[in-house]
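**User:**
My hope is that you can spare some time for a protein that puzzles me. This is the protein in question:
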Amino acid sequence: MDRLAQTLVHQDGVITRRQAIDCGVSEASLRTKLRRREWVRVHEGVYLTHTGTPTWHQRAWAAVLGLPRAALSHQSALAAVGLRARAAAGPIHLAVGRKRFAPRRDGVVVHRYSALDDRVSWNARPPRVRVEHAVLDVAAESSAELDVVACLSDAVGARVTTAVRLGAALSTRERFKYRAFVARVLADIADGSCSVLERGYLTRVERAHGLPKPRRQAPTIVGRRGFRDVEYDRWGLVVELDGRFAHDDARSRDRDMGNAVACENCTVPRSVTI
């Protein structure tokens, strides 16, 4: 594979003018490709090697390549690792240095960082803010506490980071909105509350009514492999917090009944769906 083809493969078919010339494409050949619509201009000096609608990854590459020393940030950094799927339809978020000049471009939102190199994985493709910091950035811009919980729990639930790593990233920030609240949420996530609904049960039901501490995310021992949201071993009670949406068909009800199989110390096993 020649250098030009390799560059295009690594960058999802997106290339800069400088890269193309370095790969042996002459100025005349570049003008011909553009005139014949073999390549199309996305941003100043950034080209896509087809005329169809660019994919999200191609839009991300074009945004990063169009601004030297830039990296995906916020929702875009999370979308790059499979989170925040809805971000794929929105603008591309970029992180740049605090004093970096960044021209205004359609479909691109620029955020300025004072410690950019400490937070970016430059060897990622495309370069992006590390997951932990991207999660905290999105959480800090949330307008409601439920959105903060969802952002943190989704990232941990998807196994792209952990509550411990998020806590370590939080400790490096001198100023952070929701600091105390985020610290409490991370402690609850580390304890097994892996969603907004599960934390709602913890804070509004379990703690509010002085219920005993249950086991959380205990592996099932019958039927399909999985994890029980909340389990009170002493009373043989399993609480599933997925709502009716995830429990309103025959297969789901059969699974719930399986979760209610009696344990050694329980005489009246029960399964409750919330």
Observations:
- Residues 244-273 have pLDDT under 50 and may be disordered.
- The two ends are 56 Å apart (CA to CA).
